[in-house]
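Q: For a teaching session next week I want to show students how multiple molecules come together into a single three-dimensional assembly. I've collected the sequence lines for a complex. Could you give me the predicted structure tokens for the whole thing so I can convert them for display?
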Amino acid sequence: GAVVSQHPSWVICKSGTSVKIECRSLDFQATTMFWYRQFPKQSLMLMATSNEGSKATYEQGVEKDKFLINHASLTLSTLTVTSAHPEDSSFYICSARGWGARIYGYTFGSGTRLTVV
Amino acid sequence: LAKTTQPISMDSYEGQEVNITCSHNNIATNDYITWYQQFPSQGPRFIIQGYKTKVTNEVASLFIPADRKSSTLSLPRVSLSDTAVYYCLVGEFNTNAGKSTFGDGTTLTVKP
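A: Of course. Below is the structure for the complete assembly, covering every listed component.
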């Protein structure tokens, strides 16, 4: 149990376009989902926390209008990078916590490599 | 949220036991300690979790002293495939108020 699926695993987009990343909990209900970004050889940086049915809470310094997070159901959260620029190129990872998960903590997705050209 | 401190890097050889210690001096009463492993371009993978004393599973052991201000992840007989970054997370996972903030992690390099 406790599987989180993240798609796509990699994406290349043109500067100025928007990209949507999906995070799904496959075998449990994710009451809370987290979004991280990770630059090469650095740790994961928490971007935002989303609870099902409510607005996401963003960490300081993260632009909520640029990184749109939707957590409309107990199994799906999406992160949309709007008007992407090369500096948004990074590795984005989601994690989920909720009912039915086997572990008492967080389950992570496999990550999405975003490259903006 | 408890801040964690780990060694930046460690080297080991195949077949050896590796112990990685994490300091979390301001751990709260309801906080659990969880260790994750991350390979390049992959999401972190759960290794082990504990609250106090010792926890053991099929891949690792976790030692937590009585004051809970530190924890040690023990990997028995490491292999080359254990080369990865290891993170310890401390947090109150069972409420919506809890969130996970990663420290810098420990890069373990296993040599032949």
